[in-house]
Design a protein that fits this description.
heterodimer, A: alpha/beta, abc type-2 transporter like fold, 2 domains, four-stranded mixed β-sheet, elongated, B: alpha/beta, 15 helices
Amino acid sequence: MKYKPKGLRAIFRRECKRLVSRPVYLICILLVPLFCTFFFTTLMWEGAPLRLPVAIVDLDKSKSSRGITRTLESMSFVDTELKLNSYTQAREAMQRNEIYAFLMIPEGFQQKASSGKQPELTYYTNDAYYVAGGFAFKALKMTAALANGSVVRQTMISKGVPPSQIDAKLQPVVLDTHPLGNPWLNYSVFLNNIMLPVTLQLMVMLMTVYCIGIEIKEGTSRRLLIEGNRSLLRVILGKLLPQTILFTLVGWFINIYLFGWLGFPHSGGTLQVLTAMFLLVTAAQSLGIFIIGCFPVLRLGLSSASLFGIVGFSLTGFSYPVIAMYKPFQIIANLYPSLHYFSVYTHQALSPSPLWYSLPDYFVFMLYLTLPLIIGSRLKKALYQQKYIP
Amino acid sequence: MINSNTLTGTIRRGFLDAAYIWKQEFHTIFKDLGVMIFLFILPLGYPVMYGLIYNTQVVRDIPVVVIDDSRSTLSREYCRMLNAAPQINIISYSANMDEAKSLMASGKAYGIVYIGRDFEKDIYRGNSSHINLYTQMNSMLIYRGLLMASTDVVGVFNDEVKKRGLAGATVTQESISIQPVKSSYISVYNPTGGFASFIMPAVEVLVIQQSLLLAIGMIAGTHRERNKSHLLIPHNHRYFGTFRIIFGKSLCYFTIAVLSSFWTMIAVPHIFSLPQLGDTTDIFLFVLPFILASIFMGMTLSVIIRGREYPMLLYVFLSMPFIFMSGVSWPWSAVPKGWQVIASMVPSTFATQGFIQINTTGASLNQVSFYYLWEWGLCLFYFFTTFVVYRIMLRKEMRSIIKQPQQL
C-alpha cells in the first residue's frame, strides 16, 4: 500500500478530527481540569475552615469560667456547641470524631485565680487532623492567653500601673508577622495555585502518551509516519500541537480564574506565570513523549505516566515542603516540571522579585524540550513497527 | 451432569459457575501485567514510597535571614534563641532589606527577621518593642514552622525580660505574677505533629480503593476489547447468570484486597512507627464493607469503560479530589454540604475517617458505628447498582448470541 506524504497541516487537521470524534479526549483535556478547578475552589471557598467543632469541659462553673467560654464562643474558627462534664466524655467525643479539640477549665479555677494560686487551663487538640487541629489550637491558645491577660490587667490596674503601659509590661517584645502575598492565610491560595497546575501536568502527560500510543495499538502509526514524510518531528508536532493549544488555554483559564475572578494574589507577575503555564504544558508533553518512547506499549506507557504523575502531587511540595524531604526525593522532585512552575509562581506572582531570579526555572523548562530528541529514534522505530502486544 | 431444573440443582450449578468465574478472573489478572501493576505494585509499593517521602515528619531548619539593625546585646540574644529553635536555621545576617530579599528571591531563604534600630532602647524604656517576621507564603507548613518557632521564642524572651526586670521594672511590678493563669497544651494522637502520622492513614485507605477501581476497570476494558461485539461479558455459557458473575468476580478481587489492605493498614504503619492504637480485629472488621463497597463501585463504574486504558485516564486524577473529600486535610466540618453528599457516596470518605479514628485515636468499632454502618449501606447500594448494570449487560450479551449463535 502506498500513502501520499502529507504536510504538517494535514496531520494537524487529522488530529483535530480525532480530538472531536472521540469523547475521551475532550473529557480529559477540558472536563477533568475544569472539574478539578471547580471542585477545589468551591471546596475551600471560605479560605479558612470556620466553625470547627470543639468542646468545653467547664468543671468550675463560675463567672470566670463562663467568661472564658464566651471568649471561645466568639471566635469564628470554632463552634462550641458541645458542653461536656468530664475529661472522659471529651476524649470519647474526640474518638467518635465529633470534636477536634477541647478546653478543660478545672474545678476551683476562679477561686485560685483571684487568690494568686495559678490555676491551669488545659487544652487538647486532635492532630490526627492536621489542619483542623492547627486552627483549633490557634483559637484555644488565644482564649488561654486572653484569660491570663485579663487577670494580669485587673491586677495591674489595681496596683496603679498606668493603662498606657500595661501592654508593654505584659509583652515587652511584640512579634509582627507579614505573610507576603497571602495575608489572609487563605488555604485555597496555598493549595489551588499549584495543585491545579499539577493536575494539568498529569493530564497532559497521560494524553500525550495516549494519543501516540493509541496509533501503535490501532496499527495506524506506520501509515501516519509515512504520511508525515517519515519525519518524526513533523508527526509529533502535528499530533501534539492541537493539545498544546487546548491545554495551554485551559491552564490560562485556571490562572485567570484564580487571579482575576477569585482575586488570588499575583502582584503583577501575571505574564510570567502565564508563560510558565505554557512552558509547563510543553514540558509535560515532552515528558509524555519520553515515556511512550521508553515504553512504546500503550498500557505500559500510561501506567508509567500515571504512577509518575500522581507522585507529582507530593513531590512538588505544596503540602509537605521539598526542603524537608530526604535528599533523593529532593533530586527526584526536580524532574517534575510543576516544581519549576511552583518556583516561578512563588517568585514572580506571590512575592515578586526581578525576572532574572526565575531564569533558571525557565531554562529547565527549555531543557525538557530536548527529552524527545534522546528517545526519538526508538520512538520512530516503534511507530514504524507498530507492534501491539495485547 | 447437574440437573438445572430443580432449585438445589440451580444453586449448585450457580456456585460451581461462580467458582469457575472466580478462577477465570484470577487467570485474567495474573496474565495481565497492566492489571498486576495496579492490583499489586500500587498497594504494596506506594504506601511505602509515601511513607518514605513523609518520613521526616516535621519541617526543621527552615532557612531564614536576619537583619539586625539594633546590633545590641539583647537583639543578639534573641537571634541566638531563634537559631536554637528546631524549625529555624539562620543562614545569613544581611545588612539591608534588599540583600535579604534577594536571598528569598533566589529560594535560599523562606523568611526574613527584621529587628529595628530601637529594639533594645524600647525595651529599657518600657515601650513595646517590635520584631518583624516576613514569610514566604508558598507552603503552609513552612509558614506554620516559622510562626510557631518565632511565637515561642518571643514568649520565652519576654519572660526573660520580665524576670530580669528590664522593662522599666518597678517595685510594684515585681509583686505581680507574670502568669496568674497557667495554660498547658497537649496534642493528642499525633503528639509530634508529624505530617506522615496525619496523611498516611488516608493514603493507606485510598490506595486500596484506587487500586481496585483501576484494576476492575482495566479488566472490564480488556473483556470489551476481546469480545467481538464489544460487550462486557464473555461468550461463555458459565457466565449466564448475574449473581454468579458478581459473586465469582467480586470474591476474586476481595481475596486480593483483603491481603493488600492488611499490608497497607497494619504492616505499613508498623514499619514506619506511625500512631497505631487501634485493635487489629476492629480494623479488619471495619475494612470489610469498605473493600466490598469499593469493589461493587468499581464493577458498577466499569460498564462505562470501553477500552482497557480508560481507567488510567479517568480514575487516576480522582485520587486528589477523593483525598480532599475525605475530610482529613480540609476538615469535614468545612466541606460544603453539596460536596458532603457526593463525598459520602465514595467509600473512601467515611472509611478514611473511621480508619483514622480506630487506628490513630484508638476508637473501638462501637465508637465509629456510624461510619461502619454507612460503609455497609454503600456496600448494599453498590451491590444493587452492580446487579442492575450486569443484568443489562447480560441481556445485551444474550441478544447478541441470539443474533450470532455460532459465536458461542
